Amino acid sequence: MDRLSSEHGTGIRLTRWLLALLLAALGVVAYAQAYESPNAGPFRTISDGQDDKVMLYGYDAVGYFWSNEALKGDPAIKAEYLGVTWRFANEGNKAEFLKSPEKYMPQFGGYCSNGINYAIPGGGGGGPNTWRIYRGKLYVFGGQSARDHFEMDTELNLERAHKYWNEELAGVNPRWMRFKRMVMRVPHYKSDRALQEEWEAKLAAKTLPVMPGSPQVVPAR
């Protein structure tokens, strides 16, 4: 009887352990899915010279990863991909991009990530102090202040931005969605002024997660 009880207890513990492992695995999958988004448009582009749909204000998408800086692309070194133009600082970066474009493309079609956090596809980014790489992916912002505001709570804002892109914005007309969400605000909406006041208060209290001049580090998962 004691032996049977012992074996029964061991079986229950094993079952519980396997169930916990399964739930943990499902949690990891759900987390990963929350940060994955389709990246086939719409795209935030500008017209420049002979090109009417230039991505990243003409900055080199590969440069952020390889040089850790915003490198201006050469209009003569370019590639067409998904109907838009990508410029590069050199032929090596162009070749690298064409091998695996998804690796280097900005998230949310190059729209300001803080805008997407509010389901508003508006400005773009890519120049100095308007980009950041989180977990191996490129995110751009409409200005340094937009990045500052986003990084007051990077994890939450990443989750929200991917949610709205996946559920509302991917593949749709950005002008219509921008109009809609300027009228029907998301529940957590804050004005630029309110965000700036919050940022300045945290700066004064030295409680910003990312203080000016510091790198933003988001652990890989």
How does this model look, in words?
46% of the residues lie in helices and 14% in strands. It has 2 domains: 1-34; 45-205, no CATH class. The protein is of the alpha+beta class. A two-stranded antiparallel ribbon has the order 1-2. Strands 3-4 form a two-stranded antiparallel sheet. It has helices at 2-34, 63-66, 91-99, 101-104, 113-116, 144-150, 154-169, 174-183, 192-205; strands at 45-48, 51-55, 74-81, 84-88, 131-134, 137-140. Helix 6 packs across helix 9. The model is unreliable at 3-8 and 10-34 (pLDDT under 50). Strand 5 (131-134) and strand 6 (137-140) form a beta hairpin.
Topology:
Layout: H1 2-34, E1 45-48, E2 51-55, H2 63-66, E3 74-81, E4 84-88, H3 91-99, H4 101-104, H5 113-116, E5 131-134, E6 137-140, H6 144-150, H7 154-169, H8 174-183, H9 192-205
Antiparallel strand pairs: 1-2, 3-4, 5-6
Helix pairs in contact: 6-9
Features:
46% helix; 9 helices; 221 residues; 2 domains; 6 strands; two-stranded antiparallel sheet; alpha+beta
* DSSP strand count: 6
Biggest sheet descriptor: 2 strands, antiparallel
Q: Strand order, biggest sheet?
A: 1-2
Secondary-structure content class: alpha+beta
| Proportion of residues in extended strands | 5-15%
Distance from N terminus to C terminus (CA atoms, Å) equals 47 Å
Nearest-angstrom radius of gyration? Answer: 22 Å
- What is the global morphology? globular
Number of domains: 2
Low-confidence region ranges: 3-8, 10-34
Brief write-up:
The chain is α+β, with helices and mostly antiparallel strands and 221 residues long.
